[in-house]
Amino acid sequence: MKRSSGIDPSKIILKPIEHQLSVLFHGKPVGLLLQLQGGDLAFQYHADYLKNKPLPLSISLPLQKERLEGTPVKAFFSGLLPDDVLLKGLAKYLRKSHHNAFALLDAVGGECAGAITILPANQTVEAPTLSENQLLTPIAVGDLLKRLEQRPLLVGENGVRLSLAGAQRKLAVIYKENHLYLSYGDAPTTHILKPMIENTPLTQSCYNELFCMRLAKVLGFETPDTLLYWVDDQTPCYLVERYDRLLNENGTIERLHQEDFCQALGIVPALKYDVTYQQCKTLLHKVSLQPAKDNLLLLQRVIFNYLIGNCDAHGKNFSLLYDKIKPRLAPVYDVLCTVIDPALSKHMAMKIGGEADPEKLYLWHWHSLVEETKTAQRSLEKQLLVLAEQVPQKALVLKKSLAEQEGIASSVFDDILAVIAKRATRLIQLIQQR
User: Fold this and answer.
1) Cross-strand pairs, 265
2) Which of 8, 123, 260, 434 is most buried per CB count within 10 Å?
3) pLDDT of 45-78, one tens digit each?
């Protein structure tokens, strides 16, 4: 006999709805983002959307006719907004609480990560053509970047409604034929532009991220294209292609859906540093189109982040990309050497075998990332050894090629090379001494 929960669904009292926004998925209405009495968020799929067994917005937001409430809704939609200081700056400019994700998305939700667009209820997308967007000269770009200091994401700029996750100042733009365009309204963008981080050893952040991303590429990781965009002779910015956008031959920009691991796991952004490797591994095993391949890639990325000194690889810096019916691990993004900045934590965001201090990692910590079998452990050791030998070699070649082929040189390259050499040597010694 099936035991009753004791709760009569007909007696459940739903909180009244105070405000609502339209949520579009690939440009088509998918449901409503609701602000309930008291400020909580809820999401309701449209009945018409549910008819044809479509994709859900998120792994954490299953398809159902009943409205969704609670932490997964908050995690997914607040995950579309910037993090930390940028989020507070955005809220301050809008004179809203930084806890009020609904109000903030109402202001900036026109161009979000993935295939999500958020609009006032019943409003439709009217994306301008490329010619209608603003062509930016380097001088104009410099002016916009200065305005970002007072207005995160250019909120309040005439016609600009975009949101980007992350804690660093940045601007989403359209990049075509060596020209930048400022996107208006809800038009999709193709690239993200990041200015230098000032007043820290990461002042060379553009060189730092360019080097680490290019290094990932030459090692065989899937990465978007990256380059330096010069505002003037002395001021480079880091320009990276959006892996969740496609620029078609006819000039239209197609959105690809993506969600970071926090969103997929239903974990709010404030807890991004609590996401574990095992949670990421389990997620890929359950939902990936290619679970075995993606889990190997995930393991290799963890090793790579260790070798380059990237301690900020948290739950929002890994994502799922939906370019097929099922998702796969998204390309590498937001990787740089953080340990060269004494003001930043030297502890890894994602622990290895329960250890966050990279200086205290031993082979048994690494073994915890795989199954407790000799075969799995030997396979892991092979991955460690291969990357420990390849990364220093590839990094030296990369430094030389950047200087000779693109005229790009920076003292930060030597700082990164020193970190890589030290950590690679340690890994090799651990394996040789076992």
Assistant:
1) none
2) 260
3) 999 999 988 899 999 999 999 999 999 999 999 9
CB atoms within 10 A of CB 155: 20
**312 given a catalytic annotation:** yes
Q: How far apart are CA 89 and CA 156, in angstroms?
A: 13
Helix (H) or strand (E) holding 211: helix 205-218
pLDDT tens sequence across 363-400? 999 999 999 999 999 999 999 999 999 999 999 999 99
Chain center to CA of 15: 33
Q: Among residues 260, 312, 334, 415, which one is catalytic?
A: 312
Quick one: tokens of 304? 């790579």
The model scores a pTM over 0.85: yes
Q: What does the alpha-carbon distance between residue 388 and residue 352 come to, in Å, rounded to a whole number?
A: 17
- In the block, tokens 């490797």 appear at 277
H or E stretch including 389?
Answer: helix 374-406
Q: For residues 65 and 280, what is the distance between their CA atoms, to the nearest angstrom?
A: 28
Residue whose tokens read 């050499």:
421
**3 state SS for 320-386:** EEECCCCCEECCCCCCCCCCCCCCCCCCCCCCECCECCHHHCCHHHHHCCCCCCHHHHHHHHHHHHH
